[in-house]
Amino acid sequence: MNILLIEDEYLASEKLEAQLLRYDPSIRVMGTIDSIRNAVKWFESNPAPDLAFLDIHLSDGNSFEIFQKVDVKCPIIFTTAYDEYAVKAFKVNSIDYLLKPISNDDLAAAMDKFKALHQSQPAPAPTLDMQQIMALLNRNSTPTETPHYKTRFLVKSGQKIRSVSTDEIAYFYAEDKIVFLITSAGQRFITDYTLDTLQELLDPEHFSRLNRQFIAHIHSIDEIHPYLKGRLKVYVKPSTDKEIIISNERAAAFKEWLGK
Q1: Where would I find the HTH LytTR-type domain in this sequence (predicted)?
Q2: What pLDDT does residue 22 have?
């Protein structure tokens, strides 16, 4: 069985691939795509996989844009960080959805469902009612469907546990499979979340995913410099010795976020 992963969080894609191989060692992961742009290019130039896992929020936008730009001829299992407003649409228009962090039992159930539905005949392309799905996704613009973003994080400080307000957070960064929370005062704490999950939990008005390694609060952005091939180099406060480069694909959205 050939499976494509569309996921912009390296650790999440690595974990999912390992879980799939535990479920069925004969599975072949054809590749991992990390953006809408690259997914569209892949579907335009490659034969359809048997199944694709699709993260809803990618680094360059909402992954439903993929279906508006290219004909996707394979069934989809969606992945999402929390169970809110669009899950009914996912159940109707796709094989299934999986809530992150994905458990082995949930993955096995989704794969069993896929096999049961497509055992006796080729898998049809998913029929997505884009207006219905996008309307559900955009319900957060109405008073009755305002999403609930995290406002505080519990972190361990020595032998104690303390609460850190999102207003105190400068940025999160990932290193060696560990995600750190850095406060505006320069304190560093380990978190139990992946950057992919944090991207869903944090208010996008205040936090932005800069690249695979960083999510930053808007108040932590210190300087921005043009970089090679349309990319941007970002300096944050408190300063870090890690180079922060924003890709050409992400640069326009980042500038728009800063200018809101």
Answers
A1: 153-260
A2: 94
| 164 and 150 Cβ atoms separated by less than 8 Å | no
Compute the distance between CA of residue 79 and CA of residue 243 in angstroms, rounded to an integer: 30
Run of H or E including 3: strand 2-6
Looking at residue 154, its amino acid is L
Strands 2-6 and 96-99: unpaired
Q: Which of 199, 201, 179, 202 is nearest to 189 (CA)?
A: 179
Q: Are 94 and 78 in contact (CB under 8 A)?
A: yes
What are the structure tokens assigned to 206, written together? 């205040």
Tally of CA atoms within 13 A in the half-sphere of 73 that contains its CB:
9
Kindly report each contact of residues 227-236 with a partner whose C-beta sits within 8 Å and lies 24 or more positions away, as own/partner.
Answer: 234/210, 236/170, 236/171
Name the percent of the chain lying above pLDDT 90: 45
| Nearest alpha-carbon partner for 30 in 12, 8, 15, 48 | 48
Closest CA to 137 of 147, 127, 128: 147
Give the separation between CA 116 and CA 81, rounded to whole angstroms. Answer: 26
Three-state secondary structure call for residue 176: coil
User: Facing residues of 45 across strands?
Assistant: none
Residue 122, preceding peptide bond in cis (omega within 30° of 0):
no
Q: How distant, in Å, are the alpha carbons of 22, 103, 120, 166 from that of 27?
A: 9, 18, 19, 41
* pTM tops 0.90: no
DSSP 71: -
Q: pLDDT tier at 61 (50, 70, 90 boundaries)?
A: confident
Amino acid at 83: D
- Helix axis angle for 104-118 and 10-23, nearest 10°, is 60
